[in-house]
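Recall the central idea of this unit: under ordinary conditions, the amino acid sequence of a chain determines the structure it adopts. In this exercise we apply that idea directly, starting from the sequence alone.
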Amino acid sequence: MNLAIFDLDHTILPIDSDHEWGEFLSRTGAVDGEALRRANDEWFAQYQAGTLDPVKYLEFAFEILSRFPRDQLDAWHQQYMEEVIKPAMVPAAQALVQQHLDAGDLVAIVTATNSFVTAPIGKLFKVHHLIGAEPEIDASGRITGRLIGTPTFGPGKVTHTEAWLKGLGKTIEDFPKSYFYSDSQNDIPLLERVTHPVATNPNDKLKAHAIAKGWPILNVFDAHAQ
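Accordingly, the structure predicted from this sequence is:
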């Protein structure tokens, strides 16, 4: 059995699920659309540039979630999945994940996006293990606005992946082959931790790094979906 880890946004999903969730909330009128869109775009630009402070961003995202009861959030999320996520799914990306599942590999999605947004998306890919930023939830099931632990961002992906594997009684070195698929230079720490790093639909910074390192470059999206 090998280990196969996937980043989510722009790696196996041709959109940024977190950014699109903010856009969805704006469209539904749940929040001040103009103000959220402006903030959302600014955070996203920082992420692309590699300058994002993940704790500040997650506290911003969780504060918005904390304004609403969980049943309302869940209803919106179902609508978001139908209107945004399912139409964006790319068969080639699904096939890539399925290839590892069919091989009997241990498969996980490790994403900087929070688990509220991404857990249902992971299920669409038939992946049972998802590691994402965790919002604190109170006894009533309501999101409090606070982050549990550290962000699953940059080096944090290594920390969280190793902790998850430790919980299974394993380390990365226990697997004959370990794969990590990612589009972003933010994920270089985890890409360098596995035996088979794959720059997947890479941005310019990761593409340059992959070429220098001799890593394979994989494109699974059509030109119009990138």
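DSSP finds nine helices and seven strands in the chain.
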